[in-house]
Amino acid sequence: xxPRPVLxxxxxxxxxxxxxxxxxxxIETLLADKAILDKHVRATASVNNLEGVGVAEAPRGTLIxxxxxxxxxxxxxxxxxxxxGHNNAAMNRGILQTARHYVQGDNIAEGMLNRVEAVVRTxxxxxxxSTHAMGRMPLAIELRAPDGSLVREVRRG
Length: 157
Hints:
alpha+beta, three-stranded antiparallel β-sheet, two-stranded antiparallel ribbon, 37% helix, 26% strand, extended
């Protein structure tokens, strides 16, 4: 019998934990290497191209950076495509799914704020911390009628 596929987005957190453990072990290995303090570790370079693009995979998704510099290496133009943009549709679908579970009529069930925060963190773990003061995650959910009028609001922070 073959294993069943893992379909829950919340398993991203387990994958991130495995990556963090690997990174910690790799850091320990690098710091124990005597060559880490060698004078020939650092390379210096000058501007060899006035434009460059970098793509990196990060815990929150793919990051795309596009820069232009002048002859002195000073940035004159930058375009960043961050994971939040890539993850936005998935976050919206997850929040819609949460709303369908926690909203009945004009009632918002207890726990919806926590579940919405968990959905956002699943797809973009950096977003909630990078946009709020440490230890405070303000969040507001507005339930609106088809005409746009406010029916109910739940808020924290």
